[in-house]
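Per reviewer request, we include the raw input and output of the structure prediction for the construct analysed in the revised manuscript.
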Amino acid sequence: MKKGLIALSPLGVFIILYLVTSIVAGDFYKVPITVAFMVSSIYAILIHRGRPLKERIDTFSRGAATQQMMLMIWIFVLAGAFANSAKVMGSIFATVNLTLVCLPPQMLLAGLFIAACFISLSIGTSVGTIVALTPIAAGVAQQTGMDVAMMTAIVVGGSFFGDNLSFISDTTIVATSTQGCRLSDKFRVNSFIVVPAAIVVCVIYFLMGSEVHAPQHIEHVEWVKVIPYLAVLITAIFGMNVMAVLTLGIILTGIIGLLTGAFDVFGWMKAMGDGIVGMGELIIITMMAGGMLELIKQQGGIDFIIERMTRHIHGKRGAELSIGTLVALVDVCTANNTVAILTVGGIAKQVGDRYGVDNKKAASILDTFSCFVQGLIPYGAQLLMAAGLAALNPATIIPYLYYPFAIGIAALLSILLRYPKRYS
């Protein structure tokens, strides 16, 4: 037990140094998240005993530069270049004006949430949805006087609707394959759990929208400048790879910006360069988090969680709670809901079979609990991406993440109250 707790202690160092200190100070900008990760990463290397220092650093570097991490960094780079060049060209401003023209003020919040749900369900990825909608949400917030963190949180929350339910979401595919059930069956069970939560959250946003006041004067919509965002949304919905989508957006932004005189070639390059530099902190955090979490895994931290959580299972309800808790804790340690499901999927299948848990319900629990946690950790790719695009500290977004909280509660109630009945 002592060894397992020591293996997990770098996470404790990070939480104390960043979250606890920030809460005590009453300011989430007091301790830079990069510094918190630097200190906890150094600590993780120091406590990784029994191996030469060079090997420990090599292990850290391997975790920081995995294929998934490098893909994420590429997306950060392209997203930064697209977002800033679109901003300089006037695309965000034009799209915000179009949104304000099309939606009445009381429908802005609910409409943004529904849009995020629909896009994420169509493309199966929360990150792609966040990249497409966060700049628009931040722009609408500035135009209407709403809290930027809250508007950003609406997009992040809606993005997890599709991440959890979409047939092409990697979490759905992994959850169903590890539990041995069909995508359509898992979708049916999962819908009973999370759709009521989505409806409740949508109603809350509609009620909150009654307080939103439209700007006194909405400027004329420059339709040509809306094209890059429309292209990004449409190609994403039709399933194009997120990197290809962002590259297309960058090219269209450049062409339209040059034709409208928003910038010259060098101005376009500067806008892209500034956007990439603006993502520097996110890239550093992503790599340090990956390295630290790899050391935790190598030291047996994740194995410790799995062993402790499966020791005292009694009955079907206990088995389902264990499956949900397992994937949630592993997600905290890996900051990747797909990896978390892959890690505990086999164990979950064994536990489920032993205690008679329906495999469709088990797959739904795995997916929903992992999305619940992934939507709330400040060092997860989704919150980091949203925070970077909206120029916020990721911790300021967390209090407004109603949908991730709602699906966590709904998943817990589905276990405690045994619903949907047919699969419980």
